[in-house]
Amino acid sequence: DTIDVSDVTFNIVGFSDPSGNTMSTNPPNNYVNTTSDSSKVYIDVSKPQLEPASIVFTTSNTGNDDDPDLENVLLALGQETIHMDFETNERVETPSVKINGTETGVSVSKGVDEEGVEDTTGKKWRASYLVTDTADVSEVTFEISNFNDPAGNTNTLDSRTTDESTVAKSVKIDVSKPQLEPASIVFTTSN
């Protein structure tokens, strides 16, 4: 099948045990179409998807994100944490995420709402990366290398550098100390 089925119906019309005894064909025992515990069967063949506009980048220190030369860019300094929050359309196992091209140093946890309550649906996630880089990175990349639902359907998110905020943002790692330009210091006198 190529579509999900939310309530599978079935009929068992005959079977036999290892000794060859067959199920009775006399009513009312000539078929089985329910389980004894009222459980249900579902068929899930669809890949999990990211919810539209759910990918949002943030940093742990928003106080340094106001550089007028870098519009819509979040600055991440050394020892600052970069976050990518996202939501899927169905429950998924813990996703694998790369930030700045690596899974090393990336932790993935359940997302939290505005009140700080942890998600229990398995749909909201936060990937975090502590900046330990020794060189500046002008555009940090974010990638979900895989996320799969309980049925085993897998999906990915290609590498990206901007989020899906109302005004799309990117992240820049800035670990270099400011330097004076050579020959830029000029002394003058009042006479």
Short description:
This protein has no helices and nine strands.
Give a verbal description of the structure.
With about 190 residues, the chain is mainly beta. The chain has strands spanning about 55-60, 75, 80-85, 95-100, 105-110, 125-130, 140-150, 155-160, 170-175. A 4-stranded antiparallel β-sheet has the order 1-3-6-5, with no helix packed on it. β7 (about 140-150) and β8 (about 155-160) form a beta hairpin. The protein is rod-shaped, with a radius of gyration of 27 Å. The relative contact order is 0.19. The mean pLDDT is about 90.
Separation of the first and last Cα atoms: 90 Å
Determine the number of helices (DSSP H or I, runs of at least 4 residues). 0
- Low-confidence stretches are none
CA-atom Rg in angstroms: 27 Å
Tell me the number of strands: 9
Helix proportion of residues, in percent?
Answer: under 10%
| SSE string | EEEEEEEEE
**Beta-strand fraction estimate:** 25-35%
Question: Biggest sheet, open or closed, and with what strands and sense?
Answer: 4 strands, antiparallel
Molecular shape: rod-shaped
Largest sheet strand order: 1-3-6-5
Class of secondary structure makeup: mainly beta
Average of per-residue pLDDT values:
88
Oligomeric category: single chain
